[in-house]
Design goal:
By secondary structure, this protein is mainly alpha-helical. Helices cover about 70% and strands about 0% of the residues. It has helices at about 10-20, 25-35, 35-50, 55-70. Helix 1 (about 10-20) crosses helix 2 and helix 3 (about 35-50) crosses helix 4 (about 55-70). The radius of gyration is 11 Å and the shape is globular. The chain starts with 9 loop residues before the first helix and ends with a helix.
Length: about 70
Amino acid sequence: VLPKEIHLSMRERQVVNLVGAQGMTYAQAAKEMGIEQPTVAGYAQLIRDRVGTGKPRVVLALVAQQQEARG
């Protein structure tokens, strides 16, 4: 279960969209964003830390769904 509201930076939202919603790998997302793969992994870890636990891709997909539901 996700917290009711998760505040994300612009880059974190990009990671959620590319990895969580579109299913890209960290490497693909990094190329799309023009940053290094470890940076994408770092953003994913920050998001995961806010949620508390869970597999990174699952957490990103859930956050993507939550963001989409909010519009």
